[in-house]
């Protein structure tokens, strides 16, 4: 893993933008995208940039189960507002949170991933070390699944909802194996609340208790941190 530390989220996100630009310049066509607070500045910079994604495909990591695409807290809505409406892609794929046929939806998404190998996968990390919604205990060889959110994730994400009861308890998520299949992975983490998860991901053992530690098995991972998220690293 290559680890880069910046003073501010702005500088860190600018570096992440450069990595996306380089990928596009080198012919990358399929981008794995994430939601949450972490990539918000990067998406803002993408919108302001001259990057052209009109020949590109995006594949999002996850979507809350039970939320329709026009629900303001759905990841469909988030992506449209923050990026897709302002920076068009050729195709945007996200899991369908309203598909109650789990087998059908996970198979559909796995097929999309098989047909569109990801050139560059963007990730955030949960306070508990999750990537996508692969929570502690997740199968490190898993593909797309309907995942149960960890209580700490529900707690962390309640800030986006009116009350904790409204936070969905399940989500469709790409699995760790799908994530590791990407040619290149770019993980962003900002703030002190991520410091322990970042330390465990980089310096701890590879264990399903810290799903992000599986990234140690991938040969092309760049981790971009602000100084608070990097504060517990030993060097
Ligand atoms: O970026 P946040 O809001 O801290 O969330 C952490 C991570 O958890 C997820 O929301 C789970 O999908 C990621 O997309 C995100 O980057």
TrEMBL record:
Signal peptide: none annotated. GO terms for cellular component: cytoplasm. It holds the Pfam family Glucosamine_iso. GO terms for biological process: carbohydrate metabolic process; glucosamine catabolic process; N-acetylglucosamine catabolic process; N-acetylneuraminate catabolic process. Residues 9-221 form the Glucosamine/galactosamine-6-phosphate isomerase domain. It catalyses: alpha-D-glucosamine 6-phosphate + H2O = beta-D-fructose 6-phosphate + NH4(+). It comes from the Bacteria. Keywords: Carbohydrate metabolism, Hydrolase. Pathway: Amino-sugar metabolism; N-acetylneuraminate degradation; D-fructose 6-phosphate from N-acetylneuraminate: step 5/5. The active site is at 62 (proton acceptor), 128 (for ring-opening step), 130 (proton acceptor), 135 (for ring-opening step). Its EC number is 3.5.99.6. GO terms for molecular function: glucosamine-6-phosphate deaminase activity; identical protein binding. Belongs to the glucosamine/galactosamine-6-phosphate isomerase family. NagB subfamily. Catalyzes the reversible isomerization-deamination of glucosamine 6-phosphate (GlcN6P) to form fructose 6-phosphate (Fru6P) and ammonium ion. This is Glucosamine-6-phosphate deaminase. It comes from Jeotgalibaca ciconiae. The gene is nagB.
